[in-house]
Amino acid sequence: MTIENKTIIISGASRGIGRATALLLAQHGANVVVTARNADELNQLETEAAKGHVRGKIVAIPGDVVNESDMAAVVQTALDHFHRIDVVINNAGYGIFKNVDEITVDEWDAVMATNVKGTFLLTKAALPTMKAQESGHIIIVASDVAKRTFAGGSLYTASKYAQEAFMGALRKEVRSFGIKVSGVYSGLVDSHFHEKGHGHETSKHYLQSEDMAESMLFIISRPAHVVIDEFMVHPLEQEY
């Protein structure tokens, strides 16, 4: 199924998976509203699309996913420009990896705010429009650690398990409105998320942001009667 002229919102779109996904979906003719805190990087993305590298349109609006007013403004921007919302991709994410007794309260709150509250706020802002349309698709970019734990990962995995629970309940709430809910569970991705940064020698065999973007395109482009509830993807070198 074509995604041409679909209206898609992506959070955390200034770099990495979000940026690659925005460009790929716009190349396939979707109109993409992108948000993140870094206004300069968002504007560069919008400018690149405006130069004719994509068939669709990319509209940038800076915002913080932990701010309810910002997420309401993102949704309103999508409606002002394109008059509907077909897909929301909750991609913004943040991780801190320490043993439990080393984690500060501020660190706990920051990770939970971005990964859990941020997912809630953007989803909540978009749902009234999707319910009125009786269609829509909520995608949450979680992680394979929504399914497993590891030492030093208590905070991050707790946030991803929370996203998993949120998805499960949401899926039951909105199915009768014709709204799909999909979870994307990635393994190791070569991105700025990791301590050594993007392009380091140790991550050369990881998934690339473009691999994750292709996964998103696949999920979104299924026929109307098909929903991918869960999509797990790993680099071949990573055991799960």
TrEMBL record:
As recorded in UniProt, coiled-coil segments are: none
Keywords in alphabetical order, please: Oxidoreductase
Q: What class of enzyme is it?
A: oxidoreductase
- InterPro entries the UniProt entry points to: KR_dom (IPR057326), NAD(P)-bd_dom_sf (IPR036291), SDR_fam (IPR002347)
Which is an annotated GO molecular function term of this record?
A: oxidoreductase activity
**Pfam families for this protein:** adh_short
- Domain Ketoreductase: from-to ranges: 6-185
EC number(s): the record gives 1.-.-.-
Q: Family membership, please give it.
A: Belongs to the short-chain dehydrogenases/reductases (SDR) family.
Q: What is this protein called?
A: SDR family oxidoreductase
Q: What is the lineage of its organism?
A: Bacteria, Pseudomonadati, Bacteroidota, Cytophagia, Cytophagales
